[in-house]
Amino acid sequence: MDPLLYLGGLVVMFLLWIKVKGLDYVIVHQRWIFVCLFLLPLSVIFDVYYYVRAWLIFKMCSAPKLHDQRVRDIQRQVREWSKEGGKTYMCTGRPGWLTVSLRVGKYKKTHKNIMINMMDILEVDTKRQVVRVEPLANMGQVTALLNSIGWTLPVLPELDDLTVGGLVMGTGIESSSHIYGLFQHICIAYELVLADGSLVRCTEAENSDLFHAVPWSCGTLGFLVAAEIKIVPAKPWVKLHYEPVRGLQNICKCFTEASENKQNTFVEGIQYGLDTAVIMTGTMTDHAEPDKINRIGLHFKPWFFKHVEGYLKGDNTGVEYIPLRQYYHRHTRSIFWELQDIIPFGNNPVFRWLFGWMVPPKISLLKLTQGETIRRLYEQHHVVQDMLIPMKHLQAAITRFHQDIDVYPLWLCPFLLPPGRGMVHPKGQEEELYVDIGAYGEPKVKHFEAKASTRQLEKFVRDVHGFQMLYADVYMDREEFWEMFDGQLYHRLREELGCKEAFPEVYDKICQVGLLSDICNKLRGTFWQHRGSEVPPDLKARPGVRGKKHHWPSLDGAVAPTLQWSPDRRRG
Ligand SMILES: Cc1cc2nc3c(=O)[nH]c(=O)nc-3n(C[C@H](O)[C@H](O)[C@H](O)COP(=O)(O)OP(=O)(O)OC[C@H]3O[C@@H](n4cnc5c(N)ncnc54)[C@H](O)[C@@H]3O)c2cc1C
């Protein structure tokens, strides 16, 4: 009885404390209480549910059978939208809080939500070395299946919850990207439902323009319903070499050399200060030296970035063998280093042993429960940015990051950028080595101001022909945005495929300053519709308009609609 009374007393005191301080104060300043008591257990329930579901579906082989039906359902929704007059833009119906990106798109409330309930792995073809997946299949699911049968994706972005759709339509990167490129570069086919409801497959050879335009378009060219992705044989271990490096020049030199060396399957740097970093290089191996095995994924192990920092503090190099899947998800438990701001004692050994198995809380649940105050605090006093910079400008870039935001650790991940005609490619016709500089945390510069400081960084990135990842807060104006990204192919396809009436422009969808212009643009579209029978100028080249059959070969042949222009169709 005594322990029960004691516990009851504690609960009463806790509730009184919340009453005195106010719930808002507790959620903002002692967020860990809420996270530990509610979000961690909920996250476990979520994970177990999704794991069992994915396992059952794969075992019953039901995904391929259901897939076609799900695609038809999306086509039906798009056609219904069209029949109703296409009054608002369309977007995926996945709630904004469920995504990894910190932004919660307000457009979800105003646009027509197309429900895409597709989260399965459809087929693993080891002969062709290809896996075919639905867009909501996530990285945790993919590694769980592929690694268990001896295969892997050549580029496997770290966080379990990142989805194939998000990684194709946004972007994805991993420490093997210096060999294979970004996530989009390991994809060999996309299947999309277009604005007219037709289903289209695109590859390098078939509908090649669309294939190149899809990555980074953030769902503004069509709905992804499946992707075919290359797979490569996997080995059970990663032999990882840790090298502490001091001096900025030295860091840049060592990191560039490691990234240029194709013998390294994995290359990653964590920079702990302007002059200190640890550079890690790894290869996959079949065997491990038993005394050097480190199972970093076990719940009681230190957070990976803290473990790595140990090599810097001790000023010693080291070699370890890490199980492949645990290596891939090395930053999952601490969400890189974001979790230290939410659970400050999360890396304490007692916490790790007792509760480490529940960590991390789901990013989606963190977003769902953050409330307006925390969201604003985060926006103003927290940076989450990934800037992609040509490797030759690495030193200038790190100096710039230091002056403008001073956030450490910085994540350094090299990648190869092949020439292309989509939104993101190097300036010339040659492939070029780039580096993703990821800054996640609280800026230490006194003069930090979210908009002004980010704009300064964005200008630097444009000047060196770099790119900003679009999941983060983007403060560029439209002109600056299209100076950074190549919009030629993208805009042409939006005209040809009738996207201008169906989806917002990517800038309007993701940019801070673009959010308002999104609404204005749609109003302008509605204005055109009210003007009567004349075809809006941007629709003149649209396939199907004025009775032309559209030229995108469709997978569902006769069932696919060919949009015929008629004034009343536009008004519904
Ligand atoms: C905390 C954090 C950690 C991160 N870690 C990594 C990392 O380790 N490695 C890495 O590479 N990146 C990382 N990122 C960036 C990440 O790659 C992008 O945020 C990614 O685009 C988000 O993936 P998501 O699955 O949540 O996609 P979403 O945010 O759901 O989607 C991204 C865009 O694609 C569109 N889209 C999604 N599915 C479809 C579809 N089926 N049809 C049409 N459009 C669609 C959405 O509308 C949206 O515009 C991280 C981001 C954050 C905030």
TrEMBL record:
DNA repair is among the record's keywords: no
Enzyme Commission number, as recorded: 1.3.1.72
InterPro entries per record: Diminuto-like, FAD-bd_PCMH, FAD-bd_PCMH-like_sf, FAD-bd_PCMH_sub2, Oxid_FAD_bind_N
Cofactor: FAD
Basic residues bias locations: 543-552
Domain FAD-binding PCMH-type: start-end pairs: 58-234
Positions of region (Disordered): 538-560
PROSITE patterns assigned to the protein according to its UniProt record, in alphabetical order: FAD_PCMH
Gene Ontology cellular component annotations, sorted alphabetically: endoplasmic reticulum membrane; Golgi membrane
Recorded family membership: Belongs to the FAD-binding oxidoreductase/transferase type 4 family.
Annotated TM spans: 32-52
Recorded topology in the membrane: Single-pass membrane protein
Single GO biological process annotation from the record: cholesterol metabolic process
Keywords: Cholesterol metabolism, Endoplasmic reticulum, FAD, Flavoprotein, Golgi apparatus, Lipid biosynthesis, Lipid metabolism, Membrane, NADP, Oxidoreductase, Signal, Steroid metabolism, Sterol metabolism, Transmembrane, Transmembrane helix
Protein role: Catalyzes the reduction of the delta-24 double bond of sterol intermediates during cholesterol biosynthesis. In addition to its cholesterol-synthesizing activity, can protect cells from oxidative stress by reducing caspase 3 activity during apoptosis induced by oxidative stress. Also protects against amyloid-beta peptide-induced apoptosis.
Source species taxonomy: Eukaryota, Metazoa, Chordata, Craniata, Vertebrata
Coarse class of the protein's main subcellular location: endoplasmic reticulum
Organism: Lates japonicus
Domain of life: Eukaryota
Pfam family name, one: FAD_binding_4
Catalytic reactions of this protein: 5alpha-cholest-8-en-3beta-ol + NADP(+) = zymosterol + NADPH + H(+); lanosterol + NADPH + H(+) = 24,25-dihydrolanosterol + NADP(+)
Full protein name: Delta(24)-sterol reductase
GO molecular function: Delta24(24-1) sterol reductase activity; Delta24-sterol reductase activity; FAD binding
Subcellular location: Endoplasmic reticulum membrane; Golgi apparatus membrane
Pathway: Steroid biosynthesis; cholesterol biosynthesis
Coiled-coil parts of chain: none
